[in-house]
């Protein structure tokens, strides 16, 4: 299956900065942006320059780096934010404003018409000042906004003729894969603009939602390294890449430098002071560990039996574990061969039985297993 063209809007330096443990220095941001660009993301989104004096200097610094990824900043529908964003030299501006009744009432107090008027004023102003700047408009909390209101807002924004892309935001991570599919499909009928999807992970559906958004016609997906962001974060970069790799590895391998992803993860994990989770889809400690005998036997014949992803594509190695009671004779035989030992079938069954009996009593290391193999061989 071939995936249509899509781009990643990498938001580790914007949404990721909203992660509880993130506090990137200016140099951290440069290091992370360079690693993101080396991996090949199409866009790097930065915190609004209005957020703090350093945020503004960082937008200016990153915009000057000349990286191959487009540098964006993310702002409110606010003229002052727009003026400052324009002064930083970024290549694109992502504007947002809450559209759900909750956001309208408790965030900014504007009704739908006022939202349209304000967004139109700010977008038109930016376009007049800098016609080449890439503009995206997003309705924050789109998934809790009625489709009718979304169509009213996006249609009015599209008519301005200044926006390249609209954004759908699942701000509280509440939408389901089928709902986002339907929403994107519906919006696709109303607009020819590119469609970006930003999905939070509150119900652990962010990656699935991003993928189904893409299937339904979205063109841009927001990600963060390790999925960091406000609360428990958004679609993780590696998760999204793994999802697409499992469908079309060749396309993903030609689009991105997968060998750079491990370094990027270690870098961001270090900068925010967390470790990579054991069950991370690619870089987790156990992501490519194969344990049960039924699995290891088949794996030794063909690694595709129990792997959707080839770890070598990401510079990672797999391990076949035999130091446990679930080991099977074929995996034990494989280890014996690695040690230069060979046994017949009944000997292998005997050794495997000894290993299991010992593993029932204590935890084993690979050295314990090797000792069993060597001592059996000596007998
Ligand atoms: C869903 C998201 O993650 S959106 C991105 C979130 N990012 C950020 O918030 C960036 C960091 N934020 C900040 O540094 C500050 O909130 C600032 C500089 C943007 C604003 O700071 P303050 O002026 O002190 O306002 P405060 O943060 O208390 O409240 C937000 C203000 O923005 C207004 N607002 C909220 N969303 C929007 C919007 N999308 N467009 C325009 N105005 C908005 C609110 O009405 C409120 O206005 P008020 O000044 O009249 O009360
Ligand atoms: O601008 C957007 O589309 C997303 C803003 C955001 O972070 C959110 O709604 O969670
Ligand atoms: Zn968000």
Describe this structure in words.
Helices cover 47% and strands 13% of the residues. It has 379 residues and is of the alpha/beta class. The chain folds into two domains: 7-272, Aldolase class I (TIM Barrel, Alpha-Beta Barrel); 289-378, no CATH class. It has an eight-stranded parallel barrel with strand order 1-2-3-4-5-6-7-8, surrounded by seven helices. Strand 9, helix 12 (293-301) and strand 10 (319-320) form a beta-alpha-beta unit. Helix 3 (79-87) packs parallel to helix 5, helix 7 (177-190) runs parallel beside helix 8 and helix 13 packs across helix 14 (345-361). The structure holds acetyl coenzyme *A, 2-oxoglutaric acid (AKG) and zinc ion (ZN).
Summed up, what is this model?
This protein has about 375 residues and is α/β, with parallel strands linked by helices. Helix content is about 45%, strand content about 15%. Helix 8 crosses helix 9 and helix 12 crosses helix 13 (about 330-340).
Notable traits:
TIM Barrel, binds acetyl coenzyme *A, eight-stranded parallel barrel, binds 2-oxoglutaric acid, elongated, alpha/beta, 2 domains, 379 residues, 10 strands
> Could you name the CATH homologous superfamily of the largest domain?
Aldolase class I
Corresponding CATH architecture of the largest domain = Alpha-Beta Barrel
Order of helices and strands: EHEHEHEHHEHEHEHEHHHEHEHHH
Sheet having the most strands: 8 strands, parallel, barrel
Strand order of the largest sheet: 1-2-3-4-5-6-7-8
Task: Please report the number of helical segments.
Answer: 15
Distance, first to last CA? 55 Å
Spans of 5+ residues with little confidence (pLDDT < 50)? none
Portion in beta strands: 5-15%
Helix content percent band = 40-55%
State the secondary-structure class: alpha/beta
The total of beta strands comes to 10
Mean pLDDT: 97
Protein name: Homocitrate synthase
Pathway: Amino-acid biosynthesis; L-lysine biosynthesis via AAA pathway; L-alpha-aminoadipate from 2-oxoglutarate: step 1/5
Catalytic activity: acetyl-CoA + 2-oxoglutarate + H2O = (2R)-homocitrate + CoA + H(+)
GO molecular function, one term: homocitrate synthase activity
């Amino acid at each position: 299956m071939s995936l249509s063209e899509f781009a990643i809007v990498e938001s580790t330096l914007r949404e990721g900065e909203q992660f509880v443990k993130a506090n990137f220095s200016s140099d951290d941001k440069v290091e992370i942006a360079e690693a993101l660009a080396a991996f090949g993301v199409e866009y790097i989104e930065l915190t609004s320059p209005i957020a703090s004096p350093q945020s503004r200097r960082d937008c200016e610094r990153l915009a000057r780096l000349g990286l191959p990824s487009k540098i964006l900043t993310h702002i409110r529908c606010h003229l002052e934010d727009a003026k400052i964003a324009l002064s930083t030299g970024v290549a694109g501006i992502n504007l947002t404003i809450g559209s759900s009744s909750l956001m309208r009432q408790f965030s900014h107090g504007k009704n739908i018409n006022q939202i349209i008027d304000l967004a139109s004023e700010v977008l038109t102003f930016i376009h007049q000042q800098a016609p080449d700047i890439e503009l995206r408009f997003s309705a924050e909390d789109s998934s809790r906004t009625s489709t009718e209101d979304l169509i009213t807002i996006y249609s009015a924004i599209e008519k301005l003729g200044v926006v390249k892309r609209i954004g759908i935001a699942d701000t509280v991570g509440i939408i389901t894969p089928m709902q986002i599919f339907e929403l994107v499909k519906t919006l696709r009928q109303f607009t020819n603009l590119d469609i970006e999807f930003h999905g939070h992970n509150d119900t652990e559906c962010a990656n699935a939602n991003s993928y189904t958004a893409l299937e339904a016609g979205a063109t841009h997906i927001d990600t963060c390294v390790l999925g960091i962001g406000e609360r428990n974060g958004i679609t993780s970069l590696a998760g999204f890449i793994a999802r697409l790799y499992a469908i079309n590895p060749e396309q993903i391998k030609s689009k991105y430098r997968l060998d750079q992803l491990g370094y990027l993860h270690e870098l961001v994990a270090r900068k925010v002071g967390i470790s990579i989770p054991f069950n991370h889809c690619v870089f987790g400690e156990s992501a490519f560990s194969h344990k049960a005998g039924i699995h290891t036997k088949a794996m030794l014949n063909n690694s595709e039996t129990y792997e959707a992803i080839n770890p070598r594509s990401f510079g990672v190695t797999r391990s076949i574990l035999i130091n446990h009671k679930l080991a099977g004779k074929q995996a034990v035989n494989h280890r014996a061969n690695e040690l230069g030992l060979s046994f017949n079938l009944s000997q292998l069954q005997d050794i495997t039985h000894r290993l299991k009996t010992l593993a029932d009593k204590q935890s084993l290391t690979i050295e314990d297993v090797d000792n069993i193999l060597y001592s059996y061989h000596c007998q």
